Amino acid sequence: MTSRVILLRIALLDVTPRVWRRLRVPEAIALDQLHLLIQAAMGWSDTHLHEFFILDQRYGSRAALGASTGGRLRESRGKPLCHALGASRSFDYLYDFGDQWHHLVVVESIDTLAEGVEPEAALLAGGGACPPEDVGGAAGYASFLAALADPAHPQHAEQLAWVGGAFDPHAFDLEAAAACVSRLAASAG
Predict the structure, then answer these.
(1) Does residue 139 sit within a domain?
(2) Which range of residues forms the domain containing residue 52?
(3) What are the pLDDT digits (tens) for 121-153?
(4) Residue 162 lies in a domain
(5) Roughly what angle, to the nearest 10 degrees, separates helices 31-42 and 174-188?
(6) Counting Cβ atoms within 10 Å, is residue 3 exposed (0-12), middle (13-18) or buried (19+)?
(7) What is the pTM of this model?
(8) Does any domain span residue 152?
(9) Closest Cα partner for 29 from 124, 126, 125, 118?
(10) pLDDT (tens digit, 9 = 90+) per residue, 7-54?
(11) What is the CATH number of the domain that holds 117?
């Protein structure tokens, strides 16, 4: 029996420098598991609600059902990506209903694996540091970076202490993030 994998490019919108990840997932991965892999790949801590918006349908966790940002929300648990995706080649992922971290997820390819090869999730590439949790969304992140970049800024020392020291918005440790995604994928499988 042959299996397929989907190559996804995930881009965090409205931030500079660019933050993006390339993630390979089995086509039958459930949306709740995809959420966890995106969290690990991006560097988020999964402390806020999320939702997917795919082909005019919204999917989220049971907790998000009562806190939806509007419209009807379906539970993501057990919903295979390939079924939700249909013929669509892109969808949206929203993390943290307060900060509104909007990610565009683009299907780069769908590949068939050789007979007997098991599809495994993997983080293949990426760039840019994930913004700190609770920084205030894209506008708050821009203000945070401006304060860090200017030692004379009135909030420089406060923001530096808040983030726990130096913060490089360009830094991304692919090896560490890929290991986190691999551990998560192995524990789910």
Answers:
(1) no
(2) 4-129+172-188
(3) 999 999 999 999 999 999 999 999 999 999 999
(4) no
(5) 160
(6) middle
(7) 0.93
(8) no
(9) 118
(10) 999 999 999 999 999 999 999 999 999 999 999 999 999 999 999 999
(11) 3.10.290.30
Residue 1: exposure state from Cβ atoms within 10 A (0-12, 13-18, ≥19): exposed
Q: Which two tokens stand for residue 187?
A: 């524990």
* DSSP per-residue string spanning 34-89: HHHHHHHHHT--S-S-EEEEETTEEEE-HHHHTT-SSS-EEE-TT-BHHHHHTT-S
The number of residues in the chain equals 189
Question: Over the range 106-139, which residues count as b (16 or more CB within 10 Å of their CB) and which as e?
Answer: eeeeeeeeeeeeebbbbbeebebbbbbeebebbe
State the amino acid at position 122 in one-letter form.
Answer: A
> Cβ atoms within 10 A of the Cβ of 156, count?
15
- 79, part of any domain: yes
Number of domains the chain is built from: 1
Residue in 150, 38, 58 with CA at minimum distance from that of residue 105: 38
